[in-house]
C-alpha cells in the first residue's frame, strides 16, 4: 500500500511558448496558455486506475481527492435498488440542460427550509451542474471579467485553481492564516476574528496588485484533520 498526495506528482508541461502552440497545433490563445501551464489529469487518471481495495492491497490511497470509498458500496447498492431510469425523463431533451425539474424543485424547497433565504428560492432559480469544478468554472465565467479575483481562505482544494483560472482567466486570491498574529492551530481557521483578519489581508493584497475582487468563497472546507489522524484511521 502506498499513500500519495498530489504535491508528490509531476505534471506534464509543454516546452513551447503559447504562440508556438497556436501555430503548431492550431489552438486558440486560451487553449495554448493552458497547455503551457500544464495539468495533472493524466497523472490523476493513472493513479485512480490503481486504487487500494481489499482485492488490490498494493494499490494507492490518495489523500488528494474528495472521495469516500468507505461508503461507495452502500451508495452504489442504494442507487441500484432505488433509482429507475425512464426514457423521456432521463434521456430526452424534456429535462433540459439545467437539470431535472424534480431535483430543482426539491433543492429549492431544501434551501428555503434549511437556510431560511431572505428571498424565496424558486425551482427556476436552481441550476444543476456536474460537480464543484463545473460550478466554480461557471460562477467565475458569470461574475468575473479577465483579471478579476475571488478570495478563498486556505487551505483549499487544489482544483480551485484551474476552475477559476483556466477558462475565465479569473484570479484566485489566497487568504492565509498561519502568518496572522494569534494563529496557533488549524482550529483557528474557524475563529471569526482570525477569519476577518485573513480576509482583510487578502483584500488589501489584491487591491495593491490591482485585482478587483468579485466574490469571497467563505465555506469550502473538506474535513480538516492532521496527517497523523488520517494514518491512524486507515491503519
Descriptive report:
The chain is mostly helical. It folds into three domains: 2-68, no CATH class; 84-128, no CATH class; 130-235, Aspartate Aminotransferase, domain 2 (3-Layer(aba) Sandwich). The chain contains ten helices and five strands. It has helices at residues 18-25, 29-37, 41-48, 72-82, 87-91, 101-115, 132-143, 160-165, 192-208, 227-234, and strands spanning 2-4, 60-62, 149-153, 171-175, 213-216. Strands 4-3-5 form a three-stranded parallel sheet. It has a two-stranded parallel sheet with strand order 1-2. Helix 1 (18-25) packs across helix 2. The model is unreliable at 1-13 (pLDDT under 50).
CATH architecture of the largest domain: 3-Layer(aba) Sandwich
Low-confidence stretches: 1-13
Largest β-sheet summary? 3 strands, parallel
**What Rg is obtained from the alpha carbons, in whole angstroms?**
21 Å
How large a portion of the residues is in β-strands, by DSSP E? 5-15%
Number of strands: 5
What is the highest CATH level, the class of the largest domain?
Alpha Beta
Q: Helix coverage percent of residues?
A: 40-55%
Shape: globular
Structural class: mainly alpha
Mean pLDDT comes to 81
CATH superfamily of the largest domain: Type I PLP-dependent aspartate aminotransferase-like (Major domain)
Order of helices and strands: EHHHEHHHHEHEHEH
The count of domains is 3
Task: Give, in spatial order, the strands making up the sheet with the most strands.
Answer: 4-3-5
Amino acid at each position: 500500500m502506498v499513500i500519495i498526495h498530489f504535491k508528490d506528482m509531476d505534471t506534464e508541461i509543454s516546452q513551447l511558448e503559447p504562440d508556438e502552440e497556436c501555430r503548431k497545433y492550431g489552438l486558440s490563445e486560451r487553449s495554448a496558455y493552458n497547455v503551457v501551464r500544464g495539468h495533472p489529469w493524466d497523472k490523476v487518471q493513472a493513479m485512480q486506475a490503481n486504487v487500494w481495495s481489499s482485492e488490490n492491497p498494493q494499490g494507492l490511497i490518495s489523500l488528494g481527492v474528495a472521495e469516500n470509498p468507505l461508503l461507495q458500496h452502500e451508495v452504489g447498492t442504494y442507487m441500484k435498488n432505488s433509482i429507475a431510469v425512464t426514457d423521456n425523463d432521463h434521456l430526452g431533451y424534456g429535462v433540459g440542460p439545467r437539470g431535472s425539474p424534480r431535483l430543482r424543485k426539491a433543492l429549492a424547497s431544501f434551501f428555503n427550509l434549511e437556510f431560511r433565504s431572505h428571498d424565496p428560492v424558486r425551482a427556476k432559480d436552481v441550476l444543476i451542474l456536474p460537480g464543484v469544478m463545473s460550478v466554480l468554472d461557471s460562477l467565475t465565467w458569470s461574475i468575473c471579467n479577465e483579471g478579476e479575483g475571488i478570495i478563498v481562505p486556505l487551505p483549499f482544494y487544489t482544483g480551485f485553481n484551474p476552475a477559476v483560472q483556466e477558462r475565465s482567466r479569473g484570479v484566485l486570491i489566497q487568504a492565509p492564516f498561519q502568518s496572522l498574529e494569534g494563529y496557533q492551530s488549524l482550529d483557528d481557521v474557524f475563529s471569526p476574528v482570525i477569519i476577518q483578519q485573513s480576509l482583510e489581508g487578502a483584500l488589501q493584497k489584491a487591491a495593491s496588485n490591482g485585482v478587483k475582487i468579485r466574490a469571497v468563497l467563505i465555506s469550502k472546507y473538506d474535513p480538516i484533520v492532521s496527517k497523523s489522524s488520517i494514518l491512524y484511521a486507515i491503519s
